[in-house]
Amino acid sequence: MKSILITGGTGLIGSRLVKALDKTRYKIYILSRRDQLDRDGIHFIKWNPEKSLLNISKIKNLHSVINLAGASIDGSRWTESYKRKILESRVNSTKLLYDKIKKLKHTPKSIVSASATGYYKNNTVNPQNESSNPGDNFLSKVVMKWEKEILNFKNLGTRITIFRIGLVLSKDGGVLKKLYPLFKLFLGVPIGSARQVISWIHEKDMTDLIICAIEDDNFDGIYNAVAPERISNKEFTNSLTKVLGRFSYPSFVKAPSFIIKIIFGEQADLVLNGLNISSEKLSKYKFRFTKLGDALNDIYSKK
């Protein structure tokens, strides 16, 4: 049986991926920072990237590595120490993976790694594709350093797929989990100019894309993991308001930019600036959800 090694396997995307993978085809190993007993056919291996602690010698027939590790970019206010954590949690974990995997007698056929649309410039008029130039902000620099480490796997003859992931929609995490209480209390309003572009993807499509990249040799290189539809902050707010059965405020009612900056500091860039990202390179992939309304209805349906 083929083995798959997953970092970030207990996170939002990772936990969905573990559930979706065919356990009759793959033996699944998850790297964890704490001791965990194997359960439901899932095997746990303890690691500590800061201390370079990892032993993967017991894994047999390692077919693919799924690299989803990294501190949440919206998990805390962006102090200098937390910004360092965002960077090092991605770079150090990827370095450790490479150092351990290159010593294996048989290296994996592929590595599929998360990255982020934060690579790109903010607020562009035209959609940016995978060959577009990077931005010059904190997240852009993090992504460039992260991807540089991932690309080292080319030295092992490993096929590399990198997904620059947009806004992942899920009621169990990410932006929707934070927004839900506000919208339920009728406090959901557009932010800043409300014109900033949002490039999003449903969690089911994100999981499907990773599985496709594991199984399809044609997935090679960097891909923007976003749905074909790009919407404005105002359209996003209106759609979520409608799906949750809340009324919409007049168009002039917005959360002012200066208030968002006071509350969130540098992290305010995540919501005050837009990322206009193209998914054209994924044209052969059939998205389950191409329209925001359909995606939100699926997420909040009572099935």
> What is the CATH topology classification name of the domain at 2-168 and 199-226?
Rossmann fold
Taking the alpha carbons of the first and last residues, their distance comes to 34 Å
CATH class of the domain at 2-168 and 199-226: Alpha Beta
- Percentage of helical residues? 25-40%
| Architecture per CATH nomenclature, i.e. the level-2 architecture of the domain at 2-168 and 199-226 | 3-Layer(aba) Sandwich
Structure description:
By secondary structure, the chain is α/β, with parallel strands linked by helices. It has a domain of 195 residues: 3-Layer(aba) Sandwich (Rossmann fold). It is 33% helix and 18% strand. It contains nine helices and ten strands. The protein has a seven-stranded parallel sheet, sandwiched between helices. Strands 7-8-10 form a three-stranded mixed sheet. Helix 1 packs across helix 5 and helix 2 packs parallel to helix 3. The mean pLDDT is 91.
Quick summary:
With 303 residues, this protein is an alpha/beta fold.
Identify the notable features of this structure and list them briefly:
single chain; 303 residues; alpha/beta; Rossmann fold; seven-stranded parallel beta sheet; three-stranded mixed beta sheet; 9 helices; 10 strands
List the helices and strands and how they pair.
Layout: E1 2-7, H1 12-20, E2 26-32, E3 42-46, E4 62-67, H2 80-101, E5 110-116, H3 138-150, E6 159-165, E7 167-169, H4 174-184, E8 197-202, H5 203-215, E9 221-225, E10 230-232, H6 233-243, H7 257-264, H8 269-272, H9 292-299
Parallel strand pairs: 1-2, 1-4, 2-3, 4-5, 5-6, 6-9, 7-8
Antiparallel strand pairs: 8-10
